[in-house]
Every structure is written in structure tokens, then in C-alpha cells.
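Encode chain A's predicted structure.
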Amino acid sequence: MRRRGRRVWRSIFSYTPPQIGVLGALSGLRWLMLRVLGENEKTTREIHDELAIRYGIRIPRTLLYYHLGELERMGIVEMKGYRETGRGGAPEKVWKLKIRRIIIDIPSGIIHME
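Encoded structure for chain A:
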């Protein structure tokens, strides 16, 4: 009888509305990236450098592009365009926040993004 109670307990609390998945995918690194982008639009290099200076986080640029791509896929950031760096290399992507606020209606599980 005790096992049955555990199964019911798990089944009640294991359901997660699909919209909550967006928040679950926001790791600590992604939250910090969003804080860096919250001030204004920035190039990938500026995000990379600010993470290192402000938070002491040094990550490969490929990992940064991966996380920016995932945030873009979730609809939280968007690529605004390209900016010349003046270093003779390829132009840098410019990123900005697409939404500034996430509101969760707990009873329904609906997430509103503004």
C-alpha cells in the first residue's frame, strides 16, 4: 500500500507544463548572459569579455555561441545584426534581449513573455 502512495505522489508532482521547460533550460550561465545583455545590445565578443571580467567566467567562444543560439531558439534573445570590429576579421554578431519580463501564472502553468 505504501508503494502505491508513492506512485500517486510522483505522478501528481512529476507533471510539468510544457511552457515551464523554457525556464528549466535557463542554466546559471544563461542567466548571467541575460544579465549582461539586459543593459543594452552587445556583440558576442563583448558578452564573452564581460562574462570574464564581471563574473570571472571564461568559456570557449563556441560554447557561448551555442548558448546564444539556444536562447534565440527559446525566443528570449535575438540577433540584431552585425557590427564591424575594426580588427580586420569577420563582423561580430550583435545580440539583444527580445523579452524583458517572464510572468508565470502558477495555477495554469502558463508563461507570459513580455
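The chain has one domain: 17-103.
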